[in-house]
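Example 5.3 — 3-sulfinopropanoyl-CoA desulfinase
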Amino acid sequence: MDFNFTEEQLMIQDVARRIAQEKIAPTAAEFDASGEFPSANIKILGENGLMGIEVPAEYGGAGMDPVAYVLAMIEIAEADCAHSTIMSVNNSLFCNGILKFGSEEQKQKYVRAIAEGEAVGAFALTEPQSGSDATAMRCKAVKRDDGRYVVNGKKSWITSGPVADYIVLFAQTDPSKGAKGITAFMVHTDREGFHRGKTEPKLGIRASATCEVEFTDYVVEPEEVLGQEGEGFKIAMGVLDAGRIGIASQAVGLGRAAYKAAVAYSRERKSFGQPIGSFQMIQAKIADMKCRLDAAELLTLRAGWAKAQAEKNGGRFSTEAAVAKLTASEAAMFITHAALQVHGGMGYSKEMPLERYFRDAKITEIYEGTSEIQRMVIARNETGLR
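Solution (predicted structure tokens):
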């Protein structure tokens, strides 16, 4: 790893920081309270290349590398976790899979619209009865004689589902083949047969709209198959490796925000005639937070670097992504908890952002693979045992 960032990487980081502090941070609490999708801010992110950081310029993106994506995600997440969730789905889960497996027409049609901020994308893998066990999905796509597919089924916990224009959908095309019987499709949400459920009332990341989506005799055209029939599970797992780097970056940004708030408060708040930061109990919390934050950031940058190396030379980066996601998400939960404790009663008040940080942190240990799944991935990759 090279710890010296390139001029281009620093440039995209600076752009993300400016937008985060000028546009996102001032409105984060308001969007959290209302649960409203931040459409205007998302469009600004797209106009500045942040919705397609790794997307080549010919498809409307910034043409940067995975490390640049990590740096930008951290900045956005430090301002607001919900905005970074939307950014992560569009970059990692939507654009990444189409760039790797899609046709030229699909890249121009779907990736460009998302990367330029003209549309919102989503990723539909999870179902009410199948989360970590993706092969247990029941959503089916039956191929007709004319080459079209008819989709029926339900997907749940779809980030950006209430507002998405396009969705990468995974459905069973041959249930007898298990994982090899899953196919990926491009879905247009304005087409007959597509239905959105109610927006989920979530604990955190409330401005990131989430809902169930249902398909009733929804027709997919042959040119809307992503990759080849039966490649869906492979596409999904590859995309999730990249997505985990995004969530790790998000957790680092969130942890950084909580850590900075705790340090500042420990200097300002006085008790028994001195700043609380001079007490050993508070100092121990600050030290532990700092160690976990730095470890999470370095492991996440390593994962971004590993992804870049895999793209150049081939190979996998699933272990590095899982290690980063596990470490960073648990660090975020630890740091936000400790930071809230440092703030005492004020940390429990909605007048301070600490309680929002605390609520937002929990989801990083759950989505795109729970902490338990990350441990399983890491252990299986290390031992070679299944």
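Remark. The longest strand covers residues 149-159.
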